[in-house]
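Dear colleague,

Thank you for sharing your sequence with our group. We've completed the structure prediction you requested, and as agreed, I am returning the results in plain text so they can be pasted directly into your records. Please verify that the sequence below matches your submission; if there's any discrepancy, let me know and we will rerun it promptly.
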Amino acid sequence: MSDKPPTLVFLLMEDWFFASHFWARGLAAQKAGWRVVLVSRQSRAAAAIEASGIEFHAANLDRKRLNPFAELAFSLWLARLYRRLQPDVVHHIALKPIIFGGIAARLARVPAVVNAPIGLGFVFSSDKWLAKLLKPLVTVGLRMTMSPLHGVAVFENPDDLNAMIDGGMVRRARTRLIRGAGVDIERFTPSPEPSGPVRILLAARMIQEKGIPDFIAAARRLQGRAEFWLAGAPDLSNPNPVTEAELKAWENEGIVKWLGPVEDMAKLLRQVHIFTLPSTYREGLPKAVLEAMAAGRPVVATDIPGCREAVLDQETGLLVPPRSPADLAGALARLIDEPALRARFGAAARRRVEQNFSDEIVCRKTLAVYDSLKGTAP
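Please find the predicted C-alpha cells below.
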C-alpha cells in the first residue's frame, strides 16, 4: 500500500478569493493528510498561501475573457497540469472554472470532481445584454460539466441548488448543501457597541450588484441620522464596477465615508452598529454578512438567495426587497432608533453563526465530501 498522500487541487479565479473563502478548508485538508494544491490567477495572496504549505500554480485566468478559443486553450493547458499533479480530487469553484476545469478534468481522467458554483451571480441575475447572451451558453456548459460520473456539486444555499436542478444543470443525487465559506468565530466575536453616532457599514466588492447605489440613496434619505461607511475596492474586472471617481464624489458630497479595502474586518465591525448588504443579484452565502453576524451586529439585507439563508427576518436582522432604497432606508431607520432591537438581533445572529456557519462546521462537512470521493473512481 502506497504511503503517498492523496492530492487535492483547488481551481478558482483569484488567489485572494481562495485566501478569504477557502484557505481554512485547504489547511484543514492539509492537516487531515492531503497534499493541497491551488491553481488560480496570481496576485496579492499567492506568497502567503505558499508559505502555509499549499502548492501554488499561476494560471492564465480572466473573468472578463470571452474568447472561446482562448478558454479551450486554457483547458488544454490545465489538462496537462492535472496529468502532472495526478489529483485524487479537484475542487472547481465558480462557473467558469467548473466549465473549463470540467473539460480539463475529463481530458486528464481526474478520478473525482467537486463543483462549487458559490452563487449564480451576474449571468443568472442581471438583465444586461451580456448576461442574456451568456446565459444559454453557460447553461449548456454547466449541463456538460456539473455532474461528472465521479463527483458532486456543492451549493451554499438551497435556492441555487433547486434552480440548477430545475434548469437541468445538475442531478439532485449529485448535490450537497454546505452553507457558506465558514467564519472564524474566535476572531469575530461580539463586542459592546461603540460610543458616538450610529454607524452603518456595507463591506463588499465595489460593484453595482452589491446594491451600492441603493445604499447611497438610502443614506441620502437618512442624512444626519447616522454615519454611512463603505469598505472595499472597485472591482474593475467586473462588468459593472463602482468607480473610484464615483466613490470619491459621494464622499465629497458628505453622503458616505469610503474606507477602501480593509484587511482587519473584525476590528472594523467593532466600530459600527449595523451591517447591511442590499445585493441585487444571487449571492452564494455572503461571508461579510456572516462575519458581521458572528460579531454580534444586526444585518439588513435584501430578500434574495444567499442573503435570506443567512439573515432570519425579524430574528437576526431585517430583509427588504431588492432595488428599493425606500425599504432599505426604513429598515435602517428602525435599527437606528431602537438600540434594544439591535442588541436582540445581534445576540441571535451570533448564536445562528455558532450553530450553523463556523469554520469548524464547514471544514468538517467539506472534508467529508472529499473523503467520500477518494478512491471511488476505477
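Summary note from our side: The longest strand covers residues 7-14.

Kind regards,
the structure core
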